[in-house]
Structures are given as C-alpha cells and as structure tokens.
Amino acid sequence: MADLARELGVSMTTISRALSDHHSIGPAMKQKVLKLAKKYNYQPNRLASALRKGKSQLIGIIVPYIEGRFFPSVVHGIETAASKAGYNVIICQSNEDVAQERRNLEILLSAQVAGILVSLSRTTLDVRHFEKVRSRGLPLVFFDRIVEGDNVNAVVLNDQEGGYVSTRHLLGQGCRRIAHLAGPQHLNIYKNRRQGYLDALREAGLAEDESLVIYTDMSQDQGVAAMRQLLALPEPPDAVFAAGDYSALGAMQEARRQGLQVPNDMAVSGFSNEAFTVITEPAMTTIDQRCEEMGQAAVRLLLEVIDADGAPFTPRQVALRPELLVRNSSVRQAETELSSANLVRSFVP
Amino acid sequence: MADLARELGVSMTTISRALSDHHSIGPAMKQKVLKLAKKYNYQPNRLASALRKGKSQLIGIIVPYIEGRFFPSVVHGIETAASKAGYNVIICQSNEDVAQERRNLEILLSAQVAGILVSLSRTTLDVRHFEKVRSRGLPLVFFDRIVEGDNVNAVVLNDQEGGYVSTRHLLGQGCRRIAHLAGPQHLNIYKNRRQGYLDALREAGLAEDESLVIYTDMSQDQGVAAMRQLLALPEPPDAVFAAGDYSALGAMQEARRQGLQVPNDMAVSGFSNEAFTVITEPAMTTIDQRCEEMGQAAVRLLLEVIDADGAPFTPRQVALRPELLVRNSSVRQAETELSSANLVRSFVP
DNA sequence: TTACTTTACACAATCGATTGTGCCACTTGT
DNA sequence: ACAAGTGGCACAATCGATTGTGTAAAGTAA
C-alpha cells in the first residue's frame, strides 16, 4: 500500500479510502488507484484490516466431527454461502467433547471471527461457555444440535414434520398397521420424529399400538432385531417407519430374509437420505434432511445478526421443511409391475 | 494486556515476554503474570500477534468440494492433526473451477496463512498461480490431486499398489481370468490402478487379454454395462477388479441378476471403500484410501516445511500404502459355507 | 467581495502484540 | 576495587490498514 501511495504521490489514506470507495475521494483519483492496484495485483492484508476494524471476514464453525453424510454437507452449504458473501470459514471439531468445544470457542474468539456457527457436542449439557460469546456481542447461531429456547438463534430440521409426512405417505399407500423404529428419546430429533408419526396416526383415526413402537439405538443390527420382534407379533405390521436409514436397512433386510416382499408385504421408509439408500434393492424411501439448505440458512441468519451490527436483534428459530423422497421400498404395486419397479437404480457419483 | 501490565505495575513488554517464556524474564515475574492471566482469562489477540510476526496460526485448505466420502475424511484428518499442533484450519472449495481456485489462493495469501494444502480442481491444467505462493516462500503441500514432478511437496495414495494387491488377492482366490473396469486413463489415479493390475497379471505369468479390460466413467450404470459385455464373451472372466466402488457395484448387481454366484462364479473387488460397500450382499472387497492418514501426512509435511522457516527444504513426495479390505464379495468358499458367509454385515453409524 | 460550504486530500493516532536496543543493578573474576 | 558479565525490565518502533480531525482549494450564496 505504501508503494502505491508513493507511486501516485498521495498518502496511504487516499489509497485506503479510494479502495473502499469512500466519498471523500474524487472519481478521477479512485480510477487511478484502482488501476494501479490491479497492475500490482495488490491484496490488502486482511489481518491488519481486521485488527484495526475489530472484525475479520472470518466465520467460525464448531461441529462435533466432519464425517458421515450430514456434517460435511452442512459445512459445504456453509462454505458456499459464506464465500458468496465474502466471508471465509474456519472450522473446528469438538469430537463430541465439551472441553474441546470450549477450547474451540476460545480460539475462535481470539481469532476475532465475525460470527460463530455451532452444532453442539453430544456431551454438552452445560452451555454457559456460550455466555462469553454473547457478552462480547458476537453473533452466534446454532444449527441442528441446538440450545433449546427462544432466546437463541437456531436452524433445525422440522423432525416432527418428517415423521408426519413419512407416516402419511405410508398411510396413503394403504398401510394400516405401521410400526415405528424409534431412537433414543432423550434426543429431541428422535422424540420429534416419533411425535410426527403419532400425529399422523391419530389424524387417520388409527389407535396407537404400543407394541408397534420399538426403541432402538438406530443401528442396522437393532433394525434387524426389531423387525424380528415385529414379525413375531400376533398381528405383524404391514409397514415400518424408521427414524434412521441404518435401522430401516436392517429391518428391510430381515423382512426380505423372512420371505416378505418389500414393499407389498412390508413397506419401509427411513430417515436421513444416507448415500446407500439409492443402491439398496428396492431403493429406500427416506427423508432428506436438507443439509446444504441448513448450512445456507444458518449463514443467512448469522449474516443478518452481523449486519445488525450490535443493534438489538430478536433471536429467531428457523425450521427447515424436510423432503420426503419416495422410492420403491414404500410404493405398493400390482404384482405385474414388480419386475420393472425393482430395476436397478443408477447412481453416478 | 494493558490491564495486566497496569495491575502488576510493569510494562506490556514484560507481560508479552512472560507469556512467551522469554529468557529475560525472571521466574518470579513469570509466575505472577501467568497467574493473573489465568485469573482474567486473558486470550491474546491472534490477529495482532500474527500481524506483528507476519505469520498466523492458520493453515489454508483448498479442496474441489466437501462432499462424498473422500474429501471430508481428509479434511477431518487435517483438522485433527493441525489442531493438535496448535493450528487452525480455514477451508475453501474450488468447485472444480480453476478461477475459483485462483481466487481462493489469493484469499489465503491475504489472510496471511502459515501454509497451504491443496488438492487440485479437475479443471486446473495451468498451475502457474502457485508460483506466487512459492515466490512468497509460503509452505505449500499438495495432496491426492497433485502437481506432478519432484520439485513439489505432495502426498498421494499409491494407486499402483492398490491395483496390484487387489489383483494379487483375486489371484490368490484361484481366479484366473480377471477382468478390469478401468477409469479415464488421462487421470493418473486410474492409469496407476490399471498398471498395478497389469503388473500383478504379468508377475503371475498370465497373458494380458485386452478384451478383459473395459474402460468406463466409473458410474454404476457403466458397471452394469461392462459386466453385460464381459459375460457375453466366449470366455467370460471369473473375477473383476474395478477401479471404483460404484462400477464394482453395478458389475456385481448385473452378475447376480444373470444368475451368477458372487463370489464363487464371479469374484468382485472395488476401490475407495465407499460407505455402502459394507452393506451390499455380499459385502464388497475394496481398497481403503487412507483418507485420514492422508490428511495427517499432509499436515506433518506442511509443518516440516513451516518449521524449516525459510531454510532450504528439499521437496518430498509421500506415497501412502493402500489397505486391502477383504470382504465376502471376493472370498471363495465351499458351497456349504455360503449361507453363513452371506449373513448380514452390521454397521453402526 | 465576504462568508460559508463542499470537495479532496494529508496528518497522526490507533488496533494489540512483538522485539531490538538501552539502561540499571547486581554478581563475578582477578 | 575496577572491569566485565549477566539478569530483569522499560522504551519505542513496528506490522498494515483504518479513521477522526485538520486544512487547503474550489465553488456557492449573499
């Protein structure tokens, strides 16, 4: 910058203001500065700028881990949206450990990020460490694994709706005894998915049957076990809505192993749209969690708070609408259609 | 920091030096400063520090995208290793676009990162933009999709070895006509996998049969088509080594659809260890690409260059050894064992 | 013409931490 | 006892960009 100033015979002030389009710089001078900056391919030192302004162009992310399908996709959405808005993203993993989460928070604070996006670690019961962020007036948005309450900014998937539309879909296929493979009920996502399931049943006027709700850890193994248990009932179900794709997979495999036709004897639908759901045979109906949209929505909300710039901002909670992906595991067909329906689904990576 | 200095009645110099364990500060004073820093939970402003020192504690990553199995896992490995060494990670996506890659590079430069890790975009043919990084003396390490040559730091998987061990394994199972589903040969990874396959055949004294090598785009569809083509041969193969899991999947599905037993009539092995390979039936033998190790190795190499601190550093290329994961799709068994071998594989997410 | 704006730019302080140099006091060698 | 050495700390410059204030020159209104 000093070089530019020297070459044009003006002060650094003028350079800085010309580049940031300040009103007190004449258009002629602005042009000259811009041209020279291009020529020398001048790149401002973001550290210096951030130090002076007290705000960097960085957004901090804290996620439990970067693996599987969900978090990488959300991060992908976040990075894309942030980058479009001129921000960069610095990423931290808590490894499901509160202590690590706290450390990451400190680091992001000392890196002077413009805002922070957090998905809580599984071991985070006490959320007081986020008070420090708020007391500094630093924009903060939670996503997916959030702090409950209406005094925080948060973006989540509407899990209840996911359970509801899945169950409605199965009902629409003519299923009348719909089982549910539920997840650990102390986690809100699973509680809400189960609630959606119950809501749909009640709406259809069907009596709730406790024996049709099996509580699992969402593993494939327990999906197998659950299906075995269900098929041993005096009145086995004709469909199953699982709160996760892996348990749905296990259930589907066990059903077929016992000679049932999926979907005609047993319709199956899962949750999460894992990559494998398109390659099972039949392909699995599931709920897409809108991972990328979640990332984008989180960034949008964060930018709103950032742009409010300290002005009182009423925290907001955003609930994304899940998308039901109907595939062959749940679409009942006449016998004659079966052959074509079970054709291989192709998937180009 | 000024507060600490005032409270102890010393200069900021002393504070700074006490915290960085400078020799010219007495142990008594160091203790006092440390204790006070704890008490006030003092966090140094990393921007200011980085500005003054000309080096931040940030490592920049440029990847084509953050999706699928590979890149997220590598990033996971990178973040973990970097974090352990006291560095944080700022991540950029090139979206397979050179222009974006160039922009990302500029951004990382202006963010004053301590070093950069890059996996090239697919459209990067001209690599001159990396010259600017080298001319600034900024540590640079490529991984997976690298610039060829021995004047760059790079970490890759030994694809040739992957093809070699896969083919050796199939040979060891008694297969004698082993087909290969190859990928686009202008990409080094696919060329090398094919080379490993050929090396193993030659070593076993088997004649190379051009009709057994099918060139595909690695999609599931083309895997299906390739298997159809292979089975129409006068002398069909008894095994197939695919350079990717998706094409292996297509091949396996088509083989079973035509009534062949996998693995006894047709052994199948893939490449990449995609998540779905454990849930196919039979589970698919494949090559693990050591994603996390690659991230770790890249960080280790980068840290070496950083720690050399401008001293002449001879660029190095690291080749990771792939890991063959033997599963049921390639292990030939006596008929009586088949039932147990095809049992469900469980997978807890 | 005088007084008052407006325009266009420079001066110098500032963000927070780091570091070369200088200074003082005290120890050690001879 | 004097010179040299060393431990412990402060001063002030510095990294590079930003910004409140100051001040000419040019323009406008009276």
Protein architecture, described:
The structure is a homodimer of 349-residue chains. Chain A has 349 residues and is α/β, with parallel strands linked by helices. Helix content of chain A is 42%, strand content 14%. Chain A folds into three domains: 2-44, 434 Repressor (Amino-terminal Domain), CATH 1.10.260.40; 54-155 and 291-318, Response regulator (Rossmann fold), CATH 3.40.50; 159-289 and 325-333, 3-Layer(aba) Sandwich (Rossmann fold). The first copy, chain A, has 13 helices and twelve strands. Chain A has a six-stranded parallel sheet with strand order 2-1-3-4-5-11, sandwiched between helices. Chain A has a four-stranded parallel sheet with strand order 7-6-8-9, with helices on both faces. Chain A has a two-stranded antiparallel ribbon with strand order 10-12. In chain A, helix 5 links the parallel strand 1 and strand 2. In chain A, helix 8 packs parallel to helix 9 (188-203). The two termini of chain A are 46 Å apart. The relative contact order of chain A is 0.11. Chains A and B meet through helix 4, helix 5, strand 2, helix 6 and helix 10 of A and helix 4, helix 5, strand 2, helix 6 and helix 10 of B. Strand 2 (88-93) of chain A pairs antiparallel with strand 2 (88-93) of chain B, so a sheet runs across the interface. Chain A binds a DNA duplex (30 and 30 nucleotides) through residues 1-2, 10-17, 20, 22-26, 29, 44-54.
